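Q: I'm building a small set of examples for a reading group on sequence design. Run inverse folding on the following structure and report the sequence directly after it, with nothing in between.
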């Protein structure tokens, strides 16, 4: 049963996906090397052949295709049917079998405990208010020694109006857990024909670094790496996305392994 937030964001994502937002474009030209670079740029996950992988809130036909090409047994759970359609489209393109499930990342009860070798969580945790709920769910379904990798919006820059440069980008919202409000919450999306539409985005939430790290550690995850996405361009135009990225590193990724018995010596598990 989806709650009000899930139903709202599902509608928003459905419209974004149908309008061809970049996160909804299946990757149809992958090979083994590019697939590996895409899902495991840190080089941590090892040989994924025959490994059970959950692409969590990762519909759109990107991560599922990459893991499938690398020989993994892939399941994807996503809120949005249009996103799952893109996964089916990519799977058909490569001749892969994948399991697609529609649902909320806050409820993984449909999966058996200790089932997945890898939970690969694309950028989506910012669409729910409380990340620790998801961490507890992942802790149940991932195997001991398995991996949980997730990307998220940097809490330091989440909410900055990234296209407004007046000699700086204005950091005005308080640094705390909670909903992020934009003056204009519409996303600019270029459709298949190249025309640009503005579509109301989903509701988004900031999670402070303390909430994320304490939530991971409290649920038995040992942090293996933290990476930051910045710009490679040398002189990006002020007010452009690349320029913003060169200043604010908006996206971060944490890779962990699930070792609750190691961490239980040091910390108390948080309630699920
Ligand atoms: C930015 S896209 C990320 C996925 C994409 N494969 C990519 O590579 O960018 C965010 C995804 O999260 C999904 N999503 C949002 N809220 C969700 C929730 N509560 N439970 C499950 N999926 C959710 C959306 O439907 C969307 O597919």
């Amino acid at each position: 049963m989806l709650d009000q937030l899930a139903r709202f964001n599902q509608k928003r994502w459905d419209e974004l996906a149908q309008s061809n937002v970049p996160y909804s474009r299946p990757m149809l030209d992958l090979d083994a090397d590019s697939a590996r670079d895409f899902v495991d740029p840190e080089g941590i996950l090892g040989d994924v052949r025959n490994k059970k992988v959950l692409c969590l809130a990762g519909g759109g036909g990107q991560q599922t295709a990459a893991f499938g090409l690398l020989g993994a047994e892939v399941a994807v759970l996503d809120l949005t049917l249009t996103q799952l359609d893109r996964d089916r489209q990519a799977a058909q393109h490569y001749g892969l079998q994948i399991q697609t499930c529609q649902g909320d990342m806050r409820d993984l009860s449909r999966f058996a405990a200790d089932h997945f070798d890898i939970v690969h969580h694309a950028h989506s945790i910012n669409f729910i208010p409380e990340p620790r709920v998801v961490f507890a769910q992942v802790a149940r379904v991932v195997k001991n020694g398995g991996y949980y990798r997730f990307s998220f919006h940097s809490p330091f820059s989440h909410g900055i109006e990234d296209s407004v440069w007046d000699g700086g980008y204005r950091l005005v919202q308080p640094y705390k857990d909670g909903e992020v409000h934009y003056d204009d919450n519409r996303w600019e999306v270029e459709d298949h024909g190249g025309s640009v539409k503005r579509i109301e985005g989903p509701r988004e939430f900031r999670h402070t670094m303390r909430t994320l790290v304490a939530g991971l550690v409290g649920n038995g995850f040992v942090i293996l790496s933290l990476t930051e996405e910045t710009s490679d361009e040398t002189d990006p135009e002020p007010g452009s996305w690349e320029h913003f990225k060169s200043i604010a590193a908006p996206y971060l990724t944490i890779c962990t392994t699930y070792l609750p018995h190691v961490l239980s010596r040091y910390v108390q598990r948080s309630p699920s």
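The CA atoms of residues 131 and 212 lie 7 Å apart.
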